[in-house]
Amino acid sequence: MKLVDSHCHFDRSDAERVNAALERAKAAGLVHAVLVGQFQGPGDWGTALEIAAQHPDFFTPTLGIHPHEAARATEADLEHLARTCARPEIKAVGEAGLDYYYDHSPREVQARVFRQQCALAKQLGKPLVVHVRDAHDDCEVILREEGVREGVIHCFTGDTDAARRYLDLGFLLSLSGVVTYKKTEPLQDAVRFAPLERLMVETDSPYLAPIPYRGKKNEPSYVVETAKKVAELKGVPLERVAEVTTANAAKLFGFTV
Q1: What average pLDDT does range 228-232 have in this prediction?
Q2: Are 115 and 146 in contact, with CB atoms under 8 Å apart?
Q3: In the structure, what pLDDT confidence band is assigned to residue 13 with cuts at 50, 70 and 90?
Q4: What is the DSSP string of 95-157?
Q5: Could you read off the pLDDT of 213-228 as tens digits, one per residue?
Q6: Confidence of residue 103 (pLDDT cuts 50, 70, 90)
Q7: What tens digit of pLDDT does each residue of 233-252 get?
Q8: pLDDT for 161-214, tens place per residue?
Q9: How many CB atoms are located within 10 Å of the residue 9 CB?
Q10: Short-list 124, 126, 131, 136, CA closest to 70
Q11: Across all residues in the chain, what is the average pLDDT?
Q12: DSSP conformational letter for 4
């Protein structure tokens, strides 16, 4: 069985635990992970790309400006993002999007920076990694208006209606440990609805550890628990979920396993 974690985070504070985490991931059946690099503040992009470069056979990197930090991004930062995402080893733009739950950046600024990253992804012909929370209507409008048709709604937590709208746009849905939690019936119904050929699994580590690890620091090896839940909801063997979601991730992000 081969599994891919389609969205995880490691940065400078995690440097000492990366090797151990990768060993646990490989022991759990993981063959690859998408490592999401993020803007940290003016001129600061963290160390995710450097960590990915140290493990090129396991990590595929992306880079983007999260909506939480949108208000802190300068024009120089956006120019840096465009230059960096043009590099061949950077396989996607993002995560980028809208977060109306926390509203750490003004909504109009979130929308502007999201649109700029939509345009960048389209210009480069690379997929877009989308973060959306409590903002599905506006997110759909922006993706539709910007003409982005390739990418993933990461950590998808919407209902069947939201799933249908994103699928109609051409996006994949990536499922995190949230799908294993209690009282997530609308999300679980959406998983039953969506074709397996349009799904991926992720950890979003170090956040959102799945049951039975909820409350602990998440890591890529735990993605198997999410895959198990997806298999249960879809009524198919775990091996089938692993096979299809791995193929989906490899095709979207352009790596081989």
Answers
A1: 98
A2: yes
A3: confident
A4: EEEEETTT--S-HHHHHHHHHHHHHHHHHHT--EEEEEES-HHHHHHHHHHHT--SEEETT--
A5: 999 999 999 999 999 9
A6: very high
A7: 999 999 999 999 999 999 99
A8: 999 999 999 999 999 999 999 999 999 999 999 999 999 999 999 999 999 999
A9: 19
A10: 131
A11: 97
A12: E
Nearest-Å Rg of the Cα atoms of the chain is 17
Do residues 140 and 166 lie in contact, with contact meaning Cβ atoms separated by under 8 Å?
yes
Share of the chain residues as helix, strand and coil, in percent rounded to the nearest 5: 50, 20, 35
> C-alpha angle with apex 98: 246 to 247, nearest 5 degrees?
10
- pLDDT over 90 (residue 75): yes
Closest CA to 214 of 180, 187, 241, 239: 180
Q: How confident is the model at residue 44 (pLDDT cuts 50, 70, 90)?
A: very high
Cα 145 to Cα 109, 141, 157, 206, distances in angstroms: 17, 6, 23, 33
Q: Coil, strand or helix: which one is 256?
A: coil
C-alpha angle 60-63-67 in degrees, rounded to nearest 5 = 135
Amino acid at position 24, single letter: R
User: Structure tokens of 17?
Assistant: 């635990």
Q: Which amino acid is at 204?
A: D
CA distance 128 to 197: 18
State how far the Cα of 177 lies from the Cα of 209, in Å rounded to an integer: 6
Q: Which residue has the tokens 């081969």?
A: 2
